[in-house]
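can u do me a favor
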């Protein structure tokens, strides 16, 4: 979506795809051919890594960007160790955190005994989701985690677009660009 918008505006577009390593990187360039390559490479990519190193991605983006630019980072931003790298990137560029929330991240349904696995570490935990007290603690922890993420992003000087898996994607981006055009700090 962002690559297509950049193409339409005749802006440069680049890509840094990352896990716990840089999976693929294309420096920003203009042109339809380059923009379509970004899309093709992104869709064809099969990540090798299983973790996340947001600081590494920020460093790679800083190396690719010779001129001030608009940088969109899609991540869960759960790693506070990346804050310094985010601050450094935001000191020179306009940085927008794109977060994606799923309703299951906020509230657990009563579904009996369930095994959860962390996709990055492989750690497993078995919980009884029928336990109302556990579900309440889960929801409270999710609310606290979200508030902390929002605070950290603000402190790093990063704008934010919050997407949800149960809502259309276009409106949050349109609102961001409307606010940006009007000179308001969008997504904060």
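np, heres the sequence
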């Amino acid at each position: 979506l962002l690559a297509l918008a950049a193409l339409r505006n005749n802006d440069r577009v680049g890509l840094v795809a990352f896990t716990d390593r840089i999976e693929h990187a294309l420096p920003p360039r203009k042109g339809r051919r380059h923009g379509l390559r970004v899309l093709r490479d992104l869709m064809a990519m099969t990540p090798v890594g299983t973790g996340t190193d947001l600081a590494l991605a920020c460093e790679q983006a800083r190396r690719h960007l010779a001129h001030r630019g608009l940088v969109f980072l899609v991540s869960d931003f759960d790693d506070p160790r990346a804050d310094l790298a985010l601050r450094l990137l935001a000191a020179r560029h306009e940085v927008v955190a794109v977060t994606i929330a799923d309703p299951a991240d906020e509230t657990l349904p009563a579904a009996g005994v369930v095994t959860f696995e962390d996709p990055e570490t492989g750690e497993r935990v078995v919980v009884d989701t029928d336990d109302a007290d556990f579900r309440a603690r889960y929801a409270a922890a999710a609310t606290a985690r979200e508030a902390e993420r929002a605070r950290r992003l603000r402190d790093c000087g990063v704008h934010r677009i919050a997407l949800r898996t149960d809502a259309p994607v276009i409106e949050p981006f349109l609102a961001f660009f409307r606010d940006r055009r009007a000179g308001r700090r969008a997504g904060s």
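Residues 87 and 156 are 5 Å apart (CA to CA). hope that helps!!
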